[in-house]
Amino acid sequence: MGTVAVLSRLPGTAVERLGRHHEVRYRDEDSAPPDAELPGLVEGADAVVATLGQRVDAALLDAAGPGLRVVANVAVGYDNVDLDACRQRGVTLTNTPGVLTDATADIAISLTLMVTRRLAEAERVVRSGQPWGWGMFQLLGSSVQGRTFGVLGPGAIGLATARRARAFGMDVLLHGRSEPDPDAVAELAAEVVGFEDLLARSDVLSVHTPLTAATRHLLDADALARMRPTAYLVNTARGPVVDETALVAALEAGRLAGAGLDVFEDEPAVHPGLLERDDVVLLPHVGSATLETRTAMADLAADNVVAVLDGRDPLTAVR
Ligand code: DGY
């Protein structure tokens, strides 16, 4: 029997299941613990279950102590975790790929439709109480059919989003660090292109790349300037992949048609220049936010913990 520190509230039965095998220290709050609470929670733990709002750094790992064997991050992204610090201490890191693919792809395509069809703006008109009626020229957006959907980072979520875009009649371009799955490329009748082509030819550019040193500000002023002035940017991956100041400048100058963002550079802060614009749609990082998905994420994190503490390989280790 080990000790598992679950740092914030989880849906479903994951905590109960962990409790059948191990002693669980459960912090039943839907937020990351304040710094002062953290050492007490993790001290002596064999496993830590963390969510995205929790920075897992050397200080946390050291507060847990040398018995710590696994950190289970309840997210597919793990930029909140200092991977080197985990490696140096022989701590296994696990994440939750796969189970949130559809939910996140749904949000990426929703943002695409919301921003191209001006749906958030339209909804605000109705709520505002201002007089409105059917108007030939009222709130005209752009059709997506026959347009080009560019995927930056054609992993599972990028490809699932591309399938949805294809179903809406869009042509698909794919660009990533590694070659996308050839079967998916064929199924989508997609074109695999270089970064320059992706920028120059996408009518909607959808970001699905993880945040790494190489992708931080990959979409900077220079990259944004190479996009079409009629193009839209959609980001459901990580905020810092886009230079938000450069994005605001491009929108202000009319060098981009709009943006749909579920993630921000400095969450939960949002660049004030974005808040005041009608040509952007802003969501509070809800890509994986369905009860079913979050429950599956929590279950997978619990399974990973149980596996490692049993001396088995975790189901989804970060390599
Ligand atoms: C993830 O899993 O990385 C998502 O951003 C969480 O919603």
Q: How would you characterize the overall build of this protein?
A:
The protein is an alpha/beta fold. The chain has two domains: 3-99 and 291-309, NAD(P)-binding Rossmann-like Domain (Rossmann fold, 3-Layer(aba) Sandwich); 101-282, 3-Layer(aba) Sandwich (Rossmann fold). The protein is built from 13 helices and twelve strands. Strand 3, helix 3 (58-64) and strand 4 (70-73) form a beta-alpha-beta unit. Helix 5 crosses helix 7. It starts with a strand and ends in a 10-residue tail after the last helix. The structure holds (2R)-2,3-dihydroxypropanoic acid. The site of (2R)-2,3-dihydroxypropanoic acid has 7 residues, from loops.
Which features does this protein show?
2 domains; Rossmann fold; alpha/beta; 13 helices; globular; 14% strand; seven-stranded parallel sheet
CATH class of the largest domain: Alpha Beta
The distinct bound ligands, ions and cofactors come out as: (2R)-2,3-dihydroxypropanoic acid
What Rg do the Cα atoms give?
Answer: 21 Å
N- and C-termini, Cα separation: 26 Å
CATH homologous superfamily caption of the largest domain: NAD(P)-binding Rossmann-like Domain
